[in-house]
Design brief:
An eight-stranded parallel beta barrel has the order 1-2-3-4-5-7-9-10. Strand 3, helix 6 and strand 4 form a beta-alpha-beta unit. It contains 14 helices and eleven strands. The chain starts with 6 loop residues before the first helix and ends in an 11-residue tail after the last helix. The longest helix has 18 residues. The C terminus is likely disordered. By secondary structure, it is α/β, with parallel strands linked by helices. The structure holds iron/sulfur cluster (SF4). Iron/sulfur cluster (SF4) binds next to loops.
Length: 371
């Protein structure tokens, strides 16, 4: 039998083998603090203690996909569908400008109609005009054609979030309908297309899914590195009762275990990819009220305060117990500074906060700041 590895010694290494990652993901509570300390040091030495804000606009919950874990899947008939008006999005952009957030994220269900493509392109163009190019724009609108990505990039969006949800193709099949419309290969192709069109590319996974193992999670970390990803948003899987995956709820780890497993993933990601952007997701906060602050302390450097008009918040429940659905945008901003100071970090107002990693990787195009 192999002797138990010394975690402190393991953490002195610059990179980890697959088995070492599995070992680190499996450590107990006392040893996980060593990983958190190491990740915190790496963060300080690379991206520093600045936290970048992205005002999050949940643009629409109308989606043609039917992912088995998602509360806004097309098969869920128990929600009111909505799409923000152009004015509502532009008001949110004005809020971002007035409060010096620097960037915004426009997120919505996946639609591939020409009308939707144009509508999003026009929104991006108008936000750029309204802010005289000051607001950095991230889109998160699912899988689209390469031409659509190119059009949105030309309109002025420069970052895109498309979560892979799991890098294990078999697990991907278990959490999506078995049809060509929900294809792992297409998701990979979309990530490639985004990168080739010049976007800073973000992805992420759910942590603590039914049937998922630490071996899968180690593979996820390796996938991010091999794919040379610029930004990550990942957090615990939180079940939603109006979804098919809910039937496996008895297979899940307790919420707090999923939370700490997520923090370990986040810390190991910071150690293995020191210069990328990592978001402290609201899913962390829905298990532990200080979840995002804990994530910032150990490695995250991006936070996405929800600035969707309050009356729509309850209709965008990708998962249940989502925090802050009853707050308005001002409420969220007021508590943010205190929360981030609590994590011994500070908000970088008025900065786009692009991924340092994107600035260094070979892409054959100018960086967003050059345009
Ligand atoms: S996860 Fe995204 S693509 Fe899938 S159903 Fe939900 S909103 Fe649509």
């Amino acid at each position: 039998m192999n002797p138990k590895p010394n975690i402190q010694n393991l953490l002195e290494k610059e990179s980890f083998s697959h088995d070492e990652l599995v070992t680190l993901l499996s450590v107990d509570k006392a040893e996980q603090e060593l990983i958190f300390e190491k990740a915190s040091q790496v963060k300080q030495n690379t991206v520093g203690n600045k936290v970048y804000l992205r005002g999050l606009v949940e643009y629409s919950n109308i989606c043609t996909k039917n992912c088995l874990y998602c509360g806004v899947r097309s098969g869920n008939k128990n929600i009111r569908r909505y799409r923000l008006t152009e004015n509502e999005v532009l008001e949110a952009a004005q809020f971002v400008l007035d409060h010096h957030f620097g960037s915004m994220v426009i997120q919505g269900g996946e639609l591939s109609s020409t009308q939707n493509t144009r509508r999003i392109g026009q929104l991006v163009t108008k936000i750029k005009q309204l802010s005289q190019g000051k607001i950095g724009i991230t889109l998160s609108m699912g899988e689209q054609s390469r031409e659509t990505y190119r059009y949105w990039f030309e309109c002025g969006a420069h970052r895109y979030l498309l979560r892979i949800e799991t890098s294990n193709p078999d697990l991907y099949k278990k959490i999506h309908p078995m049809d060509t419309f929900h294809s792992f290969e297409k998701r990979l192709q979309a990530l490639d297309d985004l990168r080739n069109e010049g976007f800073q590319v973000g992805t992420g996974v759910m942590i603590g899914l039914p049937f998922q193992t630490n071996d899968d999670l180690a593979n996820d970390l390796e996938f991010f590195k091999n794919f040379d990803i610029d930004m990550i948003g990942m957090g615990p899987y939180i079940e939603h009762k109006n979804t098919p995956l809910y039937q496996y709820k008895d297979l899940l780890l307790p919420p707090l275990d999923r939370f700490y497993l997520s923090l370990k993933m986040l810390a190991l990601l910071r150690i293995t990819m020191p210069d990328i952007n990592i978001a402290a997701t609201t899913a962390l906060q829905s298990i532990d009220k200080l979840g995002r602050e804990k994530a910032i302390k150990i490695g995250a450097n991006v936070i996405m305060p929800n600035i969707t008009p309050g009356r729509y918040r309850d209709d965008y429940l990708l998962y249940q117990n989502k925090p802050c659905t009853d707050e308005n945008a001002d409420d969220c901003k007021t508590c943010l500074e205190a929360r981030i100071a609590l994590a011994e970090n500070e908000i970088a107002y008025g900065e786009w906060g692009d991924s340092k990693h994107y600035g260094t990787r070979d892409k054959g195009q100018g960086t967003s700041e050059d345009r």
